[in-house]
Amino acid sequence: MNLVLFFAGLFSVALSAQEILCEYAGRSNMKTITLSEAPNGADDRINEILNVVGLSGNFNVKVANINNAAAMIYGSQRYVLFNPQFMQAVYKKAGTKWTTYSILAHEIGHHLNGHTIGSKKTLHECELEADEFSGFVLGKLGASREEAMLAIAISGANSPTHTHPDKGTRMKAIAMGWNRARTQP
């Protein structure tokens, strides 16, 4: 399956299915992904997340017509993509900013754990590593354990899928990362 990616209507490129990583809560069946500029503040959140682990940002953060959020590499560029309606819906249901941080940290976790460059791990292992990274980041940023798990509690699947573990398993991975963050100086 080929996907076509449009960059703000300026040009398009063909992507193979392997170049799109699973989304935050499932896999997209979109045949065309359209990207546009992220709203003000998205880069700031990405930079706050990266500051926790002492890294500088080199991610392109874009709004995309995907189901939720995704990590992707195209060429030599790393992307964090998100659907603003999904992010807003999770935020409204939770009533806390931490859901946004959790989702973005999860996608960054895919990049930093090497999942977007051909990991030999299973999809479930990759998702759990990204979840644990998200929990670690939120613990360092000051979120409570419950706040760190809230995005998955709201949007995760009750049963495992081909691409993602069930939300209970994912919440345990987030809690492990959060606990590690709280015990490290």
Explain what this protein looks like in three dimensions.
- This protein has 185 residues and is of the alpha/beta class.
- The protein has one domain (2-183).
- The chain contains six helices and seven strands, in the order ββββαβββααααα.
- It has a seven-stranded mixed β-sheet with strand order 2-1-4-5-7-6-3.
- Helix 2 (84-94) crosses helix 5 and helix 4 (123-141) crosses helix 6.
Strand and helix map with partners:
Elements: E1 2-7, E2 11-16, E3 20-23, E4 32-37, H1 42-52, E5 59-64, E6 69-74, E7 77-82, H2 84-94, H3 98-112, H4 123-141, H5 145-155, H6 167-183
Parallel strand pairs: 1-4, 5-7
Antiparallel strand pairs: 1-2, 3-6, 4-5, 6-7
Question: What would the average pLDDT be, to the nearest integer?
Answer: 85
| Gyration radius from CA atoms, angstroms | 15 Å
Q: Specify the helix fraction band.
A: 40-55%
Strand order of the largest sheet: 2-1-4-5-7-6-3
Order of helices and strands: EEEEHEEEHHHHH
- Coarse shape: globular
Task: Offer a quick outline of the entry.
The protein is an alpha/beta fold and 185 residues long. Helices cover 45% and strands 22% of the residues. A hairpin with a 3-residue loop joins strand 1 and strand 2.
